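Q: My labmate handed me this sequence with no annotations at all. I'd like to see what the chain might look like in three dimensions before we decide whether it's worth expressing. Could you predict it?
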Amino acid sequence: MQITIKVQITKEFKIDEVKATRAINAPLQIVLSGEKKSFLTLNKDICTRFNIPMSLDLVDRTLVCSFESRELPLKNQRPFYGCVNMESFGSDDLKIDSLKKSKIMSPSFTMIPPSKHSEVSRTLELSSFGGGDGMHLSPLPCPFYQIVLELTDEEYKVCKILPPTSIFKVSFRLA
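A: Here is what I predict for the chain of 175 residues:
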């Protein structure tokens, strides 16, 4: 019996910047707040689907992003038996680029006696499929999402046990 693990994460981001682009297939780019910048490249159809106005007046608004994990199916025919069926993902599916946990220790000399302060951060980096290799210029597909999530300890632990064929489906709404 196979156990399926599902993760649902909802995060709110402040929209820091909205850019109009010259690309015909991707006229709008939304930059989200955070230590590491996240961005969405959208066209009219995607904006309509998520009820996001194609406007430069979105700055300082809140975008609620919902992420739901699912496993990609494996092919069951030769010669690719057991390989991930890459035809089964959609435009709102995101691959897991990295899942990290880091601990930063810093001295605190303002306290008596001096002590150490530790801060733990947990991040999940997600992006759309087809983003290129980062070395060669290639047009980004539309939509294209690159999102960095700050996770709680519980969210991090659940994401860590996801199967290797897991991806996240994303949806958006303006708050």
